[in-house]
Structure formats: structure tokens, C-alpha cells
Write a structure and sequence with these properties.
alpha+beta; 3 domains; four-stranded antiparallel β-sheet; 8 strands; disordered N terminus
């Protein structure tokens, strides 16, 4: 096996290349996410791929949870919830898409979620029923699952069903910005960061600052 230590950003990071964790085999180090956690590219016995942190691998090793790219959990969920008729519901679709954005590097949205370190809380990761119990049914077809803090994780305290952004923020004077790879309105950025919309508009629109720089000023 080739020496991969030279690819690691720090000597303090233990090289996991080649190790197996259940159905996952670590292929190589991928990157440090925004929480400074090492993420590893892993291959599953099913042929799928996943980017998993060291902590997640170690927790799975100590637990009795299936250690896979998600195929085991998905199959288990399908078998568990099909008798309740939930697999074809909007709630299950939102649950499925949420997990894919965070853990499947093959979906387009992964770059804005999983690659940035956004995760699904363990309670929801393990159980669709827990997700449904916490979030309830989708109020209407115009609602979607959203995070209150766009930099936060998918967890009960940070998620809600809201009217789709197109309807909620669709005004002619709306200003949109690119923030960490995600296109959001200036109002959403203000709500997520606690910085006034006026200050953000001055920094981003008037002075031409990148959104990340404008937010870093507080």
C-alpha cells in the first residue's frame, strides 16, 4: 500500500487508509471540513461511496449500528416504513433528500452540504420515524424542509417546514448573494447571521465585499 501520510494535513491525524469499518473500506483522506474534522473517502461493499469523518467511523465501530454508505439504513428504512405507506410521501422524500445532500458525494447538492461539514443528527440519521415525530407532516405542498441557520446541521432545533424560498422571498427588490456556495437572499443571510440587512447590503452591494467577508466583520 502506498504511503499516504504525506497527503495528510497534519501528523496528528491518524492514517485510516485501508482500514475496514463494517461494510466501509477507507480509500484515502479527502479533506478537512469546516469543523476541522478529517473526512475520508470510503467504499462500501455495495459499490457505493461515502465521505465520512474520523469521529463517525469510530462511533460506528463502537456501536451496533450498520457500518455502510447508507445502503443498509436505507434498505432497513424501506422495509420498516413500507407497511405504513410512508415511502411515497413528501415527508419521506424530504428525509431521503436531506440525507443524500449530506452523505452522497454523487449528488449535485453535496458540494453545498456534506462537503461543507453539514450533517444529519444521529437521531434522524438512524430513524425516519424520529424525523417525522419531531417535524410532523408537511403543512402543504408549498412548504419545504429548511434550516434556520444555513451553517447549522439538520437537527430538530434548527429545522422547520417553511414556504418555499421562491414564494417567501420572491420580491422584485430581493438581493441574492452567494454564501459558501449557496445562493440565498440577503434577508435570509441577515436572519441566519444576526447582522442587519442594511449593514450587509452596504458591505456586499455597495462596497463589493464577498458575503463571507461581510459576515466575518460581524
Amino acid at each position: 500500500m502506498a504511503d499516504t501520510n504525506k497527503l495528510l494535513p497534519s501528523r496528528r491525524i491518524k492514517d485510516l487508509t485501508g482500514r475496514r469499518f463494517g461494510k466501509l473500506t477507507v480509500v484515502c483522506f479527502s479533506h478537512l471540513d469546516e469543523t476541522n474534522s478529517a473526512r475520508w473517502k470510503c467504499e462500501c461493499d455495495c459499490g457505493g461511496e461515502a465521505l465520512v469523518t474520523t469521529g463517525e467511523l469510530n462511533r460506528k465501530q463502537r456501536s451496533k449500528l450498520p457500518k455502510s454508505c447508507g445502503c443498509s439504513q436505507v434498505q432497513s428504512a424501506i422495509e420498516k416504513f413500507s407497511t405504513h405507506g410512508m415511502t411515497g410521501t413528501p415527508e419521506y422524500a424530504a428525509y431521503h433528500d436531506m440525507r443524500a445532500r449530506c452523505y452522497n458525494p454523487n449528488v449535485r447538492e453535496f458540494a453545498r452540504y456534506g462537503a461543507r461539514g453539514v450533517i444529519v443528527c444521529p437521531r434522524w440519521m438512524e430513524s425516519f420515524q424520529a424525523f417525522l415525530a419531531d417535524m410532523g407532516r408537511r403543512p402543504s405542498g408549498r412548504h419545504s424542509l429548511e434550516r434556520k441557520n444555513v451553517n447549522g446541521n439538520y437537527e430538530p432545533s434548527n429545522c422547520e417546514w417553511v414556504l418555499t424560498r421562491k414564494q417567501q422571498w420572491n420580491r422584485r427588490d430581493t438581493v441574492y448573494v452567494d454564501y459558501h456556495g449557496e445562493r440565498i437572499s440577503l434577508g435570509e443571510l441577515a436572519a441566519a447571521t444576526g447582522i442587519s440587512r442594511f449593514a450587509l447590503r452596504s458591505r456586499i452591494v455597495t462596497k463589493g465585499m464577498p458575503a463571507e467577508t461581510a459576515v466575518a466583520l460581524g
